[in-house]
Amino acid sequence: MNLYRKLSLEGINKNKSVYIPYILAFSFLVMSFSSLISLATMTGLEKEYGMQTIQYLLEMGTFVLFVFTVQFLYYCDGFLMEKRSEEYGLYGVLGLDKKQILKIVCLDSLIVYAVGLLAGIFASVLFYKLEEQLLLKTIKVSIETGFLPTAFPILVTIAVFTCIELLILLGRAYKIKKLGNLELIKAKRMHKKSSIKIGISALISVGLIGTGYYLALNTKNPLQSLQIFFIATLLVVLGTFVGFGAITEVVIGALKKNKKFYYRPQNFTSISGIVHRIRQNANGLASITIMSCAAIVLLGSAFSIYWSGDKILKGIFPRDIIYSVSHKDYSQQEVKEIKEQIERGLEKGSYKKQDYQKIEYKMKMTEIKGEDILFVDSFNSATTALLVVESENKNLKPDEVVAYSKKDTPDTLNISGKKYKVVEKKKQYENEKALSNMTILGGLVLEVGDLDSFDLGDAKLVEFEMFNVDGDPSLAIKDIKSSLSHDIQITGYTDAKAEFMTIFGALMFVGTFLGFVFIVGTALIIYYKQLQEGYESKENFNIMRRVGMTENEIKKSIKSQVWMVFLLPPAVALVHMIVAFFLINDLFLIIGMTNTMDKATSFGIVFVMYLIIYFTVYKITSKAYYKIISEK
């Protein structure tokens, strides 16, 4: 056993340039996973607004992190195995049987697992209070909590990472059993071959990504966007992994057909080298692309929501107290009683109304096809919320309307078999966000001369009222609710702010947390790719020297190849992000974020920050690359 332990420790020490980053990444993932579970199960927040939503968001974040961890550790282990396979093969040549080699492999895994797990658990306990306070500050909640996490998240983390490590170990054991000693020795130099032909692989990839893009760009209902987002994301991720290398090879293959361009010495070596590098590293580059895109989308979404939180609330809740009463649910007499009860509630605290505004409207879920406005029964099949209000302009004729819409409105509209002439077009109705469902569907508001006589199918009159009070709005709402005998929703800016900002804060925290994890993962994969490129370039240096190329030509050619390879992931991630933005933009309508420019600015800033981080990491890790190719 001492021999196995000695060989294992020597192997790890010899390859510490790859093992140390792997152990650090392993411990970082353990810490992150344990921290999210600790925060999701934190006691003391049960009575706070939106706690169930916060716990759900943290649990979802934990699941996303779990999926990422499995894929990430599996990829990194493949690189470690590639580095150690030659040693394992040599052990076999020197007389060790497969069972003895497997003992060394198990010891390698056990040492790395134990060090990474213990370091991660220790870090999660050490930084628990800091992370807890960051969460509480972000969601704007102040409560007393424990200094240390409970044992539950630690035990769950140990169980999960033990299972992951066992699965990875089984994969290693299978490879050792399957390959002969010479195959293990040559494994590092064996070229990876795809089981699918390049053309077919490229077509499948284009089909998957194209379908994902089509779904993202052609979803009309924001509520459908929520369901389609996950389907589109899965298709694009699969398409990126299936055909990252294939599509690139097809594009570069087209360049090869340009003989004047391709057969120049510098272009010939560069293009041939790029094809080879991409073919060998397609999965790694696809992983960098997907993680980059995930980090950008998560951080862009988180910052958009958090920075726009107060603006969203003021749009949806423009006054301290807001309520609406539908004549579909209540009779004229009941509506009168409700208003009287609200007045009595205000009298309890001697509150006076300020900035009072009343809007009477009719609303119908519709689908607009050209000039025809069609009524629909299902909310999911609706594309537009048509809202009709009475105009202050008494000169409007019965067949004339004023239209408010951010989209182009036809000059004539057909509603319930009648034609209406649009005499004026405006972009936005003053209080459209505050009115039911207007934000979600991005509606069409029509001002008409006489609301009572306007035919909108079975739509009934809704009375919407809002006002400020000269005292505490929360206490005023409590007094009103205590006076009501009917179950109607009374809300307002101050009352909703605590709950909404708590949820926005939780989204910000989880999005930033996962975004940071993806960035760290991206950095480690870039580091490993630099090592791979370095070992491969070192061999290519010798080949190029033998065919007569100068040192300067060789360095220039290889540098341009490596640069092009590492430039592909952010370029593809940018395209994915732009398409994803259209779907995310619709999703944000559900929570009242209608300003596309604000969202685009947030995503743009995050992408620029990502590029700075990406190329900084590239520059730092390239030192490892140049160190390898400089070795004689």
Automatic annotation (TrEMBL):
GO terms for cellular component: plasma membrane. It is found in: Cell membrane. Signal peptide: none annotated. It is a multi-pass membrane protein. The keyword Acyltransferase does not apply. Keywords: Cell membrane, Membrane, Transmembrane, Transmembrane helix, Transport. Residues 63-181, 513-620 form the ABC3 transporter permease C-terminal domain. InterPro entries: ABC-4_Integral_Memb_Prot, ABC3_permease_C, ABC_permease_BceB-typ. GO terms for biological process: transmembrane transport. The chain crosses the membrane at residues 20-42, 54-75, 110-130, 150-174, 195-216, 228-255, 285-307, 503-528, 562-584, 600-618. Belongs to the ABC-4 integral membrane protein family. This is Putative ABC transport system permease protein. It comes from Peptoniphilus asaccharolyticus DSM 20463. The lineage of its organism: Bacteria, Bacillati, Bacillota, Tissierellia, Tissierellales.
